[in-house]
Write a structure and sequence with these properties.
The chain is mostly helical. Helix content is about 55%, strand content about 10%. The protein has a two-stranded antiparallel ribbon.
């Protein structure tokens, strides 16, 4: 996981205390927009994670276009988030 952090040149590895997993967190929007999204556009995920990525990139596009500064934009981002991961109603 440290190699992923080095590869992207951003983000942080955080260990979970209750599970044998780690998280890779990127909070700087320019890093998400300029490094993470282009990487996964070039090397797409497959399966259900592809759908989560597509939702993630829709939300990022809304933020990039400053839609998150409006009530409607925030509500759209919340709607997208609620439908991701375990909230997704359809399966591949």
């Amino acid at each position: 996981m440290k190699n992923i952090e080095r590869f992207f040149g951003c983000g942080q590895i955080k260990e979970r205390t209750t599970e044998p997993f780690v998280d890779f967190n990127v909070t700087n929007f320019s890093n998400i927009n300029e490094k993470i999204i282009p990487f996964f556009n070039k090397y797409p995920l497959t399966g259900i994670k592809k759908l989560d990525y597509l939702d993630f990139s829709k939300a990022a596009e809304l933020i990039k276009n400053k839609a998150h500064l409006t009530k409607e934009g925030i509500n759209e981002i919340i709607r997208i988030k609620e439908g991701m991961n375990r909230g997704r109603k359809i399966k591949l």
